[in-house]
Amino acid sequence: MNIVASLALLQLFLSAAATVSGNVSTETVQSAAPGDVVLLQCYTGGNLTPVWTTWMKDSHVVASNGELHVDSSAKDPRLTLERNGSLSISKVISDDTGSFLCSSRLPDNRTINAHVLLQVTSGPNNVSTMIYPAIVLPNRTLVSKKGDSLCFKCMAWSSSSQQLNLTFSGASNNNTSLAFTPSPVLNYTIKDIQPSNQGVYTCSALNTVSNRMVKNSTELLVYYIPSGHPDCMSVETQNSSSVQLNCSWFGAYPTPELRWGKDGDFQVTDSLVVSLNRSTLQEGQTLTCTARHELLKIENERSCSITLRAPYPQGDPMVSVLEGTNVTLSCREISSVPAANTTWRKGQSEEPIVPGSKYILSVEGPDLKLTIVNISKYDEVYYFCRSENALGIRELEVFLTVKASSSAYTGAVIGVFLAALITGCAFIVAKILYSRRHTICLGGGFMQAEDRGDVVDLVESDDEQIFQDAVPRLPPLTNGRHTTLVQIHRIPSSEDHEVIVETHPEPPEQKEEPTEELTEESREEVEELVSF
């Protein structure tokens, strides 16, 4: 009871002294972690040594070198009162958290009052970062596949308040904050992960009381491969005795492994070039390049192949040209694998053609063209389009025929003469046919020389009665129909001869009167005329 009264009097005295004499009073907040050494300061205004100093915590005197004595219940060997009035606490524990009051008398009779709030905090502890689903490599690096969805979880524990922050550091940015929370757990999701999301993810836990920060970082790799197969191609070389093949598969991470053939070793590269000697190659041979990657299973390995082909130049084997003009010889070679080296040569000795004013070499797509300027008889030789690759040599033989310029019109003259001859013959034949049209129509023939002078005209006559009685009748046919007899009468005339042919159908109701029997010769003539 006496102790409580004395403390109350001390506190009242300190407050009154600070008010009357204008003594200094300060308030500070100080934090420490368990196990730390803390120094609580009472006077910071100079180097004066206080006459006496008293420290109290929770209304108990914990340290004093003045008239007040330390309570036995609050006595702690970890507490030490320094000469300048500061209180030292070694190996701080969580129970040390609380308010400390200090009162100190200086030699100039000034009193210093201080209020120190000590906060003993722990943590952040157990800071961790989880990324799933992902593959864990032996070095603890995580691997995901391009296009996957990933979940991130950041966790930590502190004895007091804390703040969690998830940051990302990649190739194009550094320490980008993705999310933060005051909760002990932070969740974050990335859908459709891309190569740009590859980098280091850091979970930072900050104790807001002690300002202590703990970080945990995890590296994430994003694997991906191209959608297509590797590319196989042949590489042009100056030496045709060998062939170079290139296999490339760009756009994969990490770098793939490539191999030519079935017996070789895989090499870590995205472009593999091999050189093969001519002696090991043959027409139609197929060479295969295989690509291997961590994202591909063995049965799903991707590959490409290339089939070797000998050259086959194509073009016109014979070319004709007039003397004094220009001519262009064309040669095309597109089937060879690897690509053949194609050149133009001249003569039986196959001398290489050197470009100049006489010979002009040009390339238009797959065509190699040779233009010969101002053709002469000297140029009438064989020309060779020579194609060569590692599988062999093939040539296209072209013979150039040079014609004299005077013979250029011979064909035209002959053509005009033949056209005129055919036209004249056709005119003569047409005129002959026209002049003999009556003879031909009467069955006399085309080349008949005799002019019979008889003209047959089928006319209608009003004088039917003249010949009515003289026309004999043919006997009726078996089908009951009647046949009219046609009789030819020759009427003499001085200018022309006219044969009048009259037909007299017999009325079906009347009976046929008997007629004279015709002679066999007359009957044949009549039948012939009727047929005509």
Automatic annotation (TrEMBL):
<keyword id="KW-0325">Glycoprotein</keyword>
<keyword id="KW-0472">Membrane</keyword>
<feature type="compositionally biased region" description="Acidic residues">
    <location>
        <begin position="514"/>
        <end position="532"/>
    </location>
</feature>
<dbReference type="Pfam" id="PF07679">
    <property type="entry name" value="I-set"/>
</dbReference>
<dbReference type="InterPro" id="IPR007110">
    <property type="entry name" value="Ig-like_dom"/>
</dbReference>
<dbReference type="InterPro" id="IPR003598">
    <property type="entry name" value="Ig_sub2"/>
</dbReference>
<keyword id="KW-0812">Transmembrane</keyword>
<dbReference type="InterPro" id="IPR036179">
    <property type="entry name" value="Ig-like_dom_sf"/>
</dbReference>
<dbReference type="InterPro" id="IPR013098">
    <property type="entry name" value="Ig_I-set"/>
</dbReference>
<feature type="domain" description="Ig-like">
    <location>
        <begin position="133"/>
        <end position="221"/>
    </location>
</feature>
<dbReference type="GO" id="GO:0005886">
    <property type="term" value="C:plasma membrane"/>
</dbReference>
<keyword id="KW-1015">Disulfide bond</keyword>
<feature type="domain" description="Ig-like">
    <location>
        <begin position="313"/>
        <end position="401"/>
    </location>
</feature>
<feature type="signal peptide">
    <location>
        <begin position="1"/>
        <end position="18"/>
    </location>
</feature>
<keyword id="KW-1133">Transmembrane helix</keyword>
<dbReference type="GO" id="GO:0005911">
    <property type="term" value="C:cell-cell junction"/>
</dbReference>
<feature type="domain" description="Ig-like">
    <location>
        <begin position="35"/>
        <end position="113"/>
    </location>
</feature>
<dbReference type="GO" id="GO:0098609">
    <property type="term" value="P:cell-cell adhesion"/>
</dbReference>
<dbReference type="InterPro" id="IPR013783">
    <property type="entry name" value="Ig-like_fold"/>
</dbReference>
<protein>
    <submittedName>
        <fullName>V-set and immunoglobulin domain containing 10</fullName>
    </submittedName>
</protein>
<dbReference type="InterPro" id="IPR051275">
    <property type="entry name" value="Cell_adhesion_signaling"/>
</dbReference>
<feature type="domain" description="Ig-like">
    <location>
        <begin position="230"/>
        <end position="305"/>
    </location>
</feature>
<feature type="compositionally biased region" description="Basic and acidic residues">
    <location>
        <begin position="496"/>
        <end position="513"/>
    </location>
</feature>
<dbReference type="GO" id="GO:0050839">
    <property type="term" value="F:cell adhesion molecule binding"/>
</dbReference>
<feature type="region of interest" description="Disordered">
    <location>
        <begin position="496"/>
        <end position="532"/>
    </location>
</feature>
<feature type="transmembrane region" description="Helical">
    <location>
        <begin position="408"/>
        <end position="430"/>
    </location>
</feature>
<keyword id="KW-0393">Immunoglobulin domain</keyword>
<keyword id="KW-0732">Signal</keyword>
<dbReference type="GO" id="GO:0007416">
    <property type="term" value="P:synapse assembly"/>
</dbReference>
<dbReference type="InterPro" id="IPR003599">
    <property type="entry name" value="Ig_sub"/>
</dbReference>
